[in-house]
Design brief:
Layout lengths: L24 E5 L21 H11 L4 E4 L4 H8 L5 E4 L4 E3 L7 E2 L6 H13 L4 E4 L4 E4 L7 H15 L2 E5 L2 E5 L5 H8 L9 E6 L5 H9 L3 E5 L9 E3 L2 H12 L1
Parallel strand pairs: 1-2, 1-10, 2-3, 10-11, 11-12
Antiparallel strand pairs: 3-4, 4-5, 6-7, 7-9, 8-9
Helix pairs in contact: 1-7, 3-4, 5-6
């Protein structure tokens, strides 16, 4: 696949090599914007009906070295995809579940109620905002009110400082979570597990919340693949869209 040059100062990024080119690859996949098209509301996503089968075939070809790494909860991934025998990290690494276990290991405490109350009040004062409740935190979406971005970012800075939280900006969203957890830590944890040890990690993600994952796989001799428009990133290869991700994965799985 050839990627066209981008306009302005955005970096030109090459397409990734075929997955078959990697020696004992381990595959880490963001969910929204990478495997599934974004939607106006998180509950409105529509995963491709062939996606579950594709993930199972990838896991089979890679001897189980596949993990979903998402800001969504593990339970929410299951709700959209069914309970697949694939490792999952949810809540930006605050939740972990191995492929063949039902138990979800929760590593972080929920954020304090006062922080959520403050966000609820801020949302009510600014029509167009929406709060997405998560197991260990919440996300404040402003996709329906993009003009509020500056106000949302300023509010996020105040809230994280007051309540000692972590926050991450995404595409028209700010996510709030307990400090000390991110997708990179989740990838690093999976890489210590017997089924992943000694492999070459490959991480696909579309958003700034995936940068920690790109950084970790790069440090371990692997590859970060940005999905979507080119931008400044720690990834070193790019696929233009969700459909291209599916094609790239399917070329290896078939």
């Amino acid at each position: 696949m050839t990627i066209d040059p981008t306009e302005g100062s955005k970096p030109l990024m090459p397409a990734p090599p075929a997955l078959a080119a990697f020696q004992k690859a381990a595959l880490f996949l963001d969910f929204d914007g990478t495997l599934v098209e974004l939607a106006g509301h998180p509950n409105e996503i529509r995963p491709d009906h062939r996606l579950a089968d594709l993930l199972l075939r990838l896991s089979d070809r890679l001897d189980g070295r596949v993990a979903l790494v998402s800001g969504r909860t593990v339970a929410d991934i299951d709700r959209h995809m069914g309970r697949l025998p694939i490792a999952v990290a949810g809540s930006h690494g605050g939740e972990l579940r191995s492929a063949w276990q039902d138990a979800i290991e929760v590593l972080a405490q929920s954020i304090p109620p006062g922080a959520q109350a403050a966000a609820q009040a801020f949302m009510e004062q600014n029509p167009g905002l929406m709060i997405e409740q998560k197991r260990l935190g919440f996300a404040l979406h402003y996709r329906a009110a993009p003009g509020l971005e500056t106000a949302v970012v300023a509010f996020a800075e105040r809230l994280t400082e007051t309540h000692q939280l972590a926050s991450q900006r995404g595409k028209m969203v700010v996510e709030f979570m307990p400090a000390g957890f991110d997708k990179g830590r989740a990838v690093a944890w999976f890489m210590t597990q017997p089924s992943f040890e000694g492999s070459t990690p490959v991480f696909l993600g579309d958003d700034v919340t995936d940068e920690h994952g790109f950084e970790v796989v790069s440090a371990q001799g692997g590859l970060g693949i940005l999905v979507g428009d080119a931008r400044e990133t720690k990834a070193t290869a790019r696929l233009p869209a969700v459909a291209d991700v599916h094609d790239w994965l399917r070329a290896f799985a078939t």
